From TrEMBL:
Binding, O2: T57, N248
DNA-binding among keywords: no
A single GO molecular function term of this UniProt record: urate oxidase activity
Reaction catalysis annotation: urate + O2 + H2O = 5-hydroxyisourate + H2O2
Active-site residues (renumbered): K12, T57, H250
Name this protein carries in UniProt: Uricase
């Protein structure tokens, strides 16, 4: 045969599941976008069209909704673990399951008197997780995207290489803004170890990331990135690796001279493109990098 099958996986992408838990008049919401991807003994469906090993993608979709009822959604990670374990242990031909989840957070609208059943979608970041199981070990990578942050001072950029094409003026007091995309990998990898408290871990990691961004006097976005990752690794034992993709959302001082006005670091043009793109991984000593370099592939 002049051709052969390479890597393959299949499943149902972007199952939107909303679970309402009713605790009397107080309701709780979990809002997820769940993508299932399975792989294993799937040569024949590609070569001959035999579906004998194929659990329909439609069934994987149904399983997501049934599990929301049967197991509830404690956290995106826990839900992903239930699903991954189910597909790998219940279907002989399936050897590996990868569950990707985006979570949209809802915040309660506080109203006097009424029941607690009104929510407003949180506009900050989107929480993400990816759970992978091969029947013996787990990989849990969680993170966030679209978290926009800005420091209106305490940022410089100077002392860089200058060649004949360099025009950038040195900045002693600039605006530093970025839209954080981050992924962190948990050390937890087998059922014998206690799993982390996923909800607590997420809240703490996000807070460390924000605190490091705010507290670092920045000489470059690269330095700020490292400070954010190092703070997470140093303060959260459950995490071994953090990867960031940070677009530098440039704020250029608007030229007000034509109007006879002085711009005393007050008025900026917020450029949307092109943008600097700063990406790096921060690791715990002794741990290896497993998060892909390109976070759009995760
Ligand atoms: O924080 C920065 N890092 C760079 O590498 C860079 N390059 C640039 O033009 N501006 C900046 N800012």
């Amino acid at each position: 045969m002049p051709t052969f099958l390479g890597q393959n996986q299949y499943g149902k992408a972007e199952n939107r599941v909303v679970k309402i838990t009713r605790d009397g008049a107080t309701h709780h919401v979990k809002d997820l976008n769940v993508s299932v991807s399975l792989s294993g003994d799937m040569d024949e469906v590609h070569y001959s069209g035999s579906n004998a090993n194929v659990l329909p993608t439609d069934t994987t979709k149904n399983t997501v909704y049934a599990f929301a009822k049967e197991h509830g959604i404690e956290s995106a990670e826990q839900f992903g673990i239930h699903l991954a374990r189910h597909f790998v242990t219940s279907q002989e031909p399936i050897h590996r399951a990868r569950i990707r989840i985006e979570e949209y957070a809802w915040e309660r609208i506080e109203t006097p008197g009424e029941g607690e059943h009104s929510f407003v979608r949180q506009g900050q970041e989107t929480r993400v997780t990816q759970i992978t199981y091969d029947g013996s070990s787990w990989e849990a990578v969680s993170g966030l995207k679209d978290l926009v942050v800005m420091n209106s001072t305490n940022s410089e950029f100077r002392g860089y290489v200058k060649d004949k094409y360099t025009t950038l003026p040195e900045a002693y007091d600039r605006v530093l803004a970025t839209e954080v995309s981050a992924r962190w990998r948990f050390g937890w990898c087998d059922d014998a170890q206690a799993a982390p408290d996923w909800e607590e871990s997420y809240a703490r990691v996000k807070q460390h990331l924000l605190t490091a961004f705010a507290e670092t006097y920045s000489l470059s976005l690269q330095q700020t990135l490292y400070a954010m990752g190092a703070r997470i690794i140093e303060r959260r034992d459950e995490i071994d690796e953090v990867r960031f993709s940070l677009p530098n959302k440039h704020h250029f001082l608007a030229d007000l001279k034509p109007f006879g006005l002085k711009n005393d670091n007050e008025v900026y043009f917020a450029a949307d493109r092109p943008y600097g793109l700063i990406e790096a991984t921060v690791l715990r000593d002794g741990c290896e990098a497993r998060i892909p370099a390109d976070l759009t592939n995760l």
